[in-house]
């Protein structure tokens, strides 16, 4: 039996990583074999490309270049890690996936969504997430949280793109959740951490997970 593919998307500082760790433990207690990964990244090749994307000057890559690099990383990630894990019956929890490309390069970068989706179809194919949790948070709050996390510099290239950029990113994320309700669940990331965890559990239990 193929495994379960769950992705977590949303703006900077929305608390995805914390919830992924909690959900991994919860699923493992129920007997799932869980693989946690991230985008961009997840494989050696993809992590190399990640370094190009998430650090340095905000203008170092155009939205088109970002989209192509992101999808090159995603193709390797899918081929080497995600698809083999799913074929082995494992549950894959991925911090960001295709929806981030739509939101960041499409919403923030103003790249034509038709172009993004054409590349997405080629790269992702049938490996569409079973469930996507889209964490929703006021970008001003998220950027403040992320700024504290990256106080010593590092992976903050996208955070430095400014509030207007991140407002556009949020809009696309919300639009995706509205357009694809069978796959996507919008999560209020302004809630206390324990409440977010409880919400995730309830959503999964309503779908027979863990099972």
Automatic annotation (TrEMBL):
Enzymatic reactions: dTMP + ATP = dTDP + ADP
Keyword Lyase recorded: no
Domain of life: Bacteria
Biological process per Gene Ontology, one example term: dTTP biosynthetic process
Record's keyword terms, sorted: ATP-binding, Kinase, Nucleotide biosynthesis, Nucleotide-binding, Transferase
Enzyme Commission identifier(s): 2.7.4.9
Any one Gene Ontology molecular-function term assigned to this protein's record: dTMP kinase activity
Broad EC category: transferase
InterPro entries documented for this protein: P-loop_NTPase, Thymidylate_kin-like_dom, Thymidylate_kin_CS, Thymidylate_kinase
Keyword Zinc belongs to the record: no
A Pfam family reported for this protein in Swiss-Prot or TrEMBL: Thymidylate_kin
Annotated protein name in UniProt: Thymidylate kinase
Highest classification ranks of the organism: Bacteria, Pseudomonadati, Pseudomonadota, Alphaproteobacteria, Parvularculales
